[in-house]
Structure formats: C-alpha cells, structure tokens
Amino acid sequence: MRWSYVAPRLALLVLLWAFFFFAFDPLLKWGLIKGIEKGAKAKAEIASLHTTFLHPSLRLTGFALADSKSEYTNLVEFSELAFSAEGAPLLEKKLVVDEASLKGLRFGTPRKTSGKLSFVKEEPSPLVEEMTAQSKSFALERAADVKNDAVSSYKVNPDDLESVKLARKLEEDYARDYKDIAAKADPAKYQAALDELKASYEKAKGEKNPLKQAKDYAEIAKQAKKIAADFKKDKEEAEAALARAKDAFKAVDEARRRDTAAVMAKMKLPSLDRQSLARMLAGPVIAERTATAMKWIALARRYMPAGGKGVLKNEARRGRMVYFPKERAYPTVLVRRLALSGELGLEAPLDYSGVVEGLTTQPQVYGRPTTALVRGAKGARRLDLRASLDATGDTIKSDSALLYSGIPVKELKLGSPGSFLVDITGATGSFDGVLKTSGDSLDGKAAMKLTGASFRPDASAIKAAPLRSAVESAFSGLNSATLEAEISGTVKDPKLSVDTDLASALSRAFGAAAGAELKKAQEQAGRKVDEALKPYRAKLDGLAASKQGELADKLKAGDAKINGAVDGLLKGLVPGKIKLPKLF
Length: 584
Known about the structure:
By secondary structure, this protein is an alpha+beta fold. Strands 1, 2, 3, 4, 5, 6, 7, 8, 9, 10, 11, 12, 13 and 14 form a 14-stranded mixed beta sheet that branches. The C terminus is likely disordered. It has a domain of 79 residues. The protein contains 13 helices and 14 strands.
C-alpha cells in the first residue's frame, strides 16, 4: 500500500466529513436566518437545524419571524419543518421532495423579546395613512354650524380635483392601450396562415393517393382549427382587456365622492353621505388588515419565479449551449406535496390542517400550478381556504377564497377618537373573501358579518348636544353589522373601497339632527364638483363609446371572416371532393 498516495486523500475525506458534520448545519442555519431577515425586515429565529446526506433530509425546528410593525409580535411561527429529498436530482444540483411536513403553523403570536432590526426602518402603508387621516379629520361638530353663504361663494378649481386628474389619465391610458387591444383581434395577422392553408388544400386536392390525401386533409383540418382557436383566444383577451379598461372608469366616481368630501372639508363641513361615513368608520381597520395582506403578497412576490418561457436559457461566452431532451426534467426546487397543520387564533385556537401541492421555483418546467387546501373545524367555527398560483405562462395568476365562520370577536374599534368611535364587543364573526391577481393587477372582495354584538358609541368629540345625542341613539338596539371591502388597482398602487351598514344608521341620525341647512350645503358642494368634472367625464365617456363601438365592429367582422373561412375549408376537406371552398 502506497501511504503517500492514500494518506492525502484520506485526510481530504476526513476534512470533508468534519466540515459537513460540524460546520454545514450551523452555516446553513445562519444563512437562512440572514436571508429571511433581509426579506422580511424583522428578526428571524431558528431553534435547531439538522441535515443528513446518506439519506438526504432536513429537519428545522422552532422557527419564528417577528412582525416588523409590532416588535413584540411574531408574524409567523412553526414548530417543525421536515422533508427527505430524492437522491438522483441532487446529482443535477436540484432539490426534489415528494413529501414534506410543516407542523405548528401559527400567526400573530406574542414574543418576549423585540423583533425589530436596528438598521431597518418600516415604511408606513399609504393605505393606512390615507384612511386614518380621513377618519381623524372628520370633525362632526362642524355639521351644527352651517354657513351657506360661505358654501355658495366657494370656487372649485378643476386642476385641484382628484376626479379630473384621474379622468385625464384614463383618457391618455385608454387611447394608448386601445391600440394593443385592437391589435389582438385584428384578422389581418391570420391572412398569411389562411393563404398557406389554401395553397396546401390546392396541392392536396390533386393528390392521386387517397391515403395520402386523407392524411394531408387531416393536417389541414388540424391547422384550420388551430387558427380558429387562436382567433377565439385573441378575441376573448381583447374583450377582457376592454372590460377591465371600462371598469377603471368606476374609479372616477369614487374620486368624485372624495372630491366632494374634500370640498366640504375646505368649507369647514363634514361630508355626511354613506360612503364618507363608511370610510370614516371602517376605513382605518380595513386598511390595516389590507396592508398586512399586501405585505404577505409583496413578500411572496419577492421570491416568486418570474414569468416567461426562457427558464432553460443559458448564454455561453462562446458557442451555443445545446440541451438534450431527457425522459424526466426536474425543476431546480420542487416540493410535490407539503402537509401542514397549526392553530388559528390566540384564545381558544382553532386547529387546522391542509396540503400544498406543486411548490417549485420553475413552474414552467413543472408545468402545473401550485395549489393549497386548508380546513379546520371546532364547534361552530369553520375554516376553508382554497388557493392556486399559476406561473406556468407569461403572466403569473392567482385565485384564492377564504371562508371563516364562528370567529370570536372580543373587541373591535371602528372610527377615530378624534371624530367618532364605536367599540364592538362580544360578537361572533363570519368572513368571506376572494382575491384574484393577474400580473400586478388586483381584484378582490371581502365581507365580515358580526352578530350578537354590543355597540358602545363614543361621541364626546361632538360638541353640539342634539347631534351627539342623535349619534349615540343611532346605535341603541343594534346587535349586528357588516363590513365590506373591494380592492383593485395594482400591487404597488392598490385602490380600496370600503362600506358598512353602520354608515346608513349614522347617516340617518345626522340627517335628522343636522337639518336642511347641512343637506343643502352638501348638494351645493356636489354640484360644484360635478360642474368642474363634467367636460372631462363627457370627453372620456365619448372616447370609450366610440372605441368600444369600433372594436365591436372589428371583432364581428373578424369573427365572420376567420370562422367563415375555416368552416368553408373544413367542409371541403372530403377525399375525392373537387370543389374548392370560397375562403374570402
């Protein structure tokens, strides 16, 4: 035995073993903590991490991630994450897991030490700031001192109105985006393919061999159906894009209501319509919950794979990289099935369990969406969460729905101490929400119903005794309430609309107590805003009407041309038939 040959190699193996036995797990644990803290901007903790290599596996216990907005609260924690990896994909530097488990998943738990990072400053949520500011500035006592002379003499500058600015922007966006919408359903781009099919038909028609002619006809029919399907898809996308653009116009009405409230505020008067009251009452609490959800979405998108088909693209400095097809192509990271369990709520927590399937960093390679199903039940409480994330195409899309009933609501505060406050206690809640995303766009609705509740209004900020008494009496006898929210816009610029049936009771109380003078002032403010907005809204509506009519005609003509040509061609694809169908 040549020790001079064996000894160095044996020493290298011992060093490698020592590294993986003593140093690998601590280094991996440290790297995970630093990476998570960088993304979440709050402290992360891992009690222990252990890996094995002969049978590749990982077991992580005692994980906790602090909430950057609440230093003594954990955003999320779990007791154990464990999985075993397949050996063959590791040879290709890929991690593939058939079964993984996540246990003890909980949210919003208290922590003993501060979770803030000294070098991180949490950016305030614009949604929360806007709603809180509106609620605080809602000075209800002004309703008792209406000066209609000041209202009549107030001048509205269109350039200062949010609705006018939005109408101008929508007009520019619509004129620009319409070109892309119209191009999707332009039948001219299918002309070359139809001409090619016509030539193929002419050639196949003269074929003497009936078997070959039948084969050629089958291929022509396949291509013809593909053209029809592609046009149908383009048509549907064009119609959907047009509908989204049309829905954006609704934001002008929302902006108009805010402008009216702003004008009333400048007149030193509160805007006591239902929408303004709903934003004052439910706006801050809904905005806070929405901001938390948006934070989760933003965090998920940070680690989400980008859309696009080029996941296997690899540029070399010289030459060209050639990929040979394999029987099984693995994504870089894939967890086929993750079983999870945990608790929801701090007092009398609800046990739940579920499964997440298809977690991967390369969904285009895996070819299937990621799905999640979570359920829980305890007494009258029920939890049902269904979610899917499809990143297999160019645009990342998600669809989620949450039903949670029997929620104990110990205490909930609506409104603001500076204007009007309502304490809700002893209620049972039921939440129903859906959220869809497509790229950066958001579309969601949610409703929270409270039953068996006690309402305690605090109107001490209202100085006028009749108005204060009317507000307090509006909540006597109430034992239920509904809070509703709709979200649209984009992830970076979400638009939130809120409503509550409590606003109706409050509006009636104000209407009875404040009298005709306040109502007259509100109507004058609304007319001033409408007059300033009218020319811009008329121009926007006229543009939309003309473009929509133009596109409808183009879609109808394209439908007749493409489908007529394809149908005519398919009818002629009969072996031995001589007559050529009229394609155009």
